[in-house]
Amino acid sequence: TDLEILKSLSEQAVVAIKNAQLFEQTEELTLGSIKTINELLERHFGEKRSHLEVVGQIAVEVGKLLELSGQELVHIERAILLLDTGRLGLTDRTWEKKEKLTPKELEQVRSIPLRGANLLKSMTSLKPIIPIIMHHHERFDGRGYPQGLKGEEIPIGARIVSVVDSFIAMISKRPYKQQLSAKQALDEIEQHKGAQFDPRVVDCFLKAMKEKDILD
Fold it and tell me: Which among 79, 77, 86 has a CA at the least distance from the CA of 131?
């Protein structure tokens, strides 16, 4: 009987070890894919993407306040690094124009999240982050894109990224818009609470931004 028990335990141990090895290999593959895509984006657009680390840190703090699981926080961090994947392959930089976009150009810009999702969908290990990438331009009131999702229909990760990414965009120097101060941007976020942004996410974001280290 003891021998049978030991055999059973050893078989379970072998399965557990193999699963752990497989998970480690999958993680290495996932991180390698993310790094490669980031390098492609930097080379293609000649942009430094160091600000994405800050976006990720703020998003994680918001996620913690919303009591998300550790795995959900990892998905959000990884999705942020790949938000712009859909810009790969576009022939021009329409999204940087100072002038008002034509309907065709606007359609092209709004296709970026879907393009990104389609480019990444073949990578099984990146599957959990695709909804965040695809829906981070949705609005809480349903007037966003690409699918016009509303409220809780929007994945929580996408709702968090929407707020944090919008804040960083407001305080960044861009050729096509006026740069705001941190306070002006925070006021703007609060003003659009319940319309563009999830009220609960905004409350947690504003709470996180009171931390001196984050605001600095």
Answer: 79
CA 47, 51, 52, 53 torsion-angle sign = positive
Q: By the 8 A CB rule, do 57 and 211 touch?
A: no
Token pair recorded at residue 194: 């319940």
pLDDT digits (tens, 9 = 90+) for 187-216: 999 999 999 999 999 999 999 998 867 777
The angle formed by the CA atoms of residues 202, 206 and 112, to the nearest 5 degrees, is: 50
The whole-angstrom separation of Cα 150 and Cα 191 is 18
Predicted TM-score (pTM) of the model is 0.81
Q: How far is it, in rounded angstroms, from Cα 18 to Cα 2?
A: 24
Determine how many CB atoms are found less than 10 A away from the CB of residue 69. 9
CA dist 141 and 83 (Å) reads 22
- Say if residues 82 and 133 touch (Cβ distance below 8 Å): yes
The top-scoring range by mean pLDDT among 35-39, 90-94, 152-156 is: 152-156
Q: Provide the 3-class DSSP secondary structure of residue 92.
A: coil
pLDDT tens for each residue of 4-29: 888 888 888 888 887 777 767 777 77
